[in-house]
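Tutorial sheet, problem 5. The four components below are modelled jointly, 448 residues in total.
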Amino acid sequence: MSQTRGRGRRADALSKDVVVRAAVDLLDEHGERGFTFKLLTERLQTGAGAVYWHVANKDELVLLATDKVIGDALAALRPEPGADAETRLRTLLLTMYDALDQHFWAAPHVVAGSAMPNAMLLLERVGSLIAETALPARRHFAAATALFLYLVGVTAQDSAHAKTVEPGVSRDELLGQEAARWAALDPATFPFVTRVAAELGDHSDRDQFITGVDLFLDGLRAHG
Amino acid sequence: MSQTRGRGRRADALSKDVVVRAAVDLLDEHGERGFTFKLLTERLQTGAGAVYWHVANKDELVLLATDKVIGDALAALRPEPGADAETRLRTLLLTMYDALDQHFWAAPHVVAGSAMPNAMLLLERVGSLIAETALPARRHFAAATALFLYLVGVTAQDSAHAKTVEPGVSRDELLGQEAARWAALDPATFPFVTRVAAELGDHSDRDQFITGVDLFLDGLRAHG
DNA sequence: ACCTGAACACCGTTCAAGT
DNA sequence: ACCTGAACACCGTTCAAGT
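Model answer (structure tokens):
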């Protein structure tokens, strides 16, 4: 994998890809806040200047790392022969949900723009599958971007939650505490929230995400 | 408004609310990146320690500022006598969309948790309106949170776009450039994106948001 | 072309001291 | 209780110098 081209170069030559891969790992380990150039140069056994030779700055590096996460998830997707468009759309969205859930720092940076080729490819897939639907063509753009935004928005929200979790406290514990706080609110001003507080306790973000997608797909079908 | 209690105190006494208000203004002016304690203490004519007396740290301050934005938008809402639940739901969501669009730094920080009382109140309103719908009660929780997440997610995405805009370049210009880049992609690998590129050029984020909401509401009705 | 590492400017936070 | 402002630790970025 590591090629030694040139003489004064290090044996395991640095490259944009090596830098980005290290960034993804460190972001996974320390989050966006804890991800520093100090950590990065230590892991890569190099100086700050070396990193800046391969990427413009930290912002670009995080962007590249985000796009890589999406690219890897897309590459891992297995085809589903015989499945209809809606089924494949659900699989695609769930796969991306899991990837963005795992790399919890990434979602807020996902933008469907030419600066992120893999995010672009993701929008393309969503759009193609929407186009296979019975939905009239003039609604394809709005439907595809809405679903794309829903995916990214929900995962970004979930990751905001994940950031709050202190080490030592489990996610379920925290949800339980929050549910208790909801239940303890004044039912006069919070009739709805107090009523559904219990559902928050034993709810799964992932299931909730699918439910939202299904409601959306129902809406599309109703437009048939 | 400004009370002089105590002797050694400044005439225009600091308070949590004054600090948060100044934070909102500075965040509007400089974005989250440009918002520093140096700027804040200059505007408030005080030292860093004074701010830390009223808020725990910068994170809490941004959170308080975010919740204030939501609170102000909720307070500005006018009742719509005679309108049905769906209409009022759309009004509510659009009002919040506009508020989060104006304060472009806020959306990524919105979380429906007890730490953000006004965000909590927003979820309550969404949920109450959903509950007025014909939707069966067991779906209320999922539907309300999905809509809430869609609102926050979309506005967070839009704000990510807004951050990219360099001063001097208008938003329409930038959209046009991006649309051109979409159109220039290889139609073989990007059949969908190249096809809808033109729609990106003359699309409105706000209209697209409503379209998404409507598709969602259609889904709810289909479940009747 | 690619890498090193010291130097710079800046930023969030703390804290001893004041009223 | 509330405020001041200097001091500290840290961080992203630059750059002259090396191969």
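Marking note: The radius of gyration of chain A is 21 Å. Full credit if you identified this.
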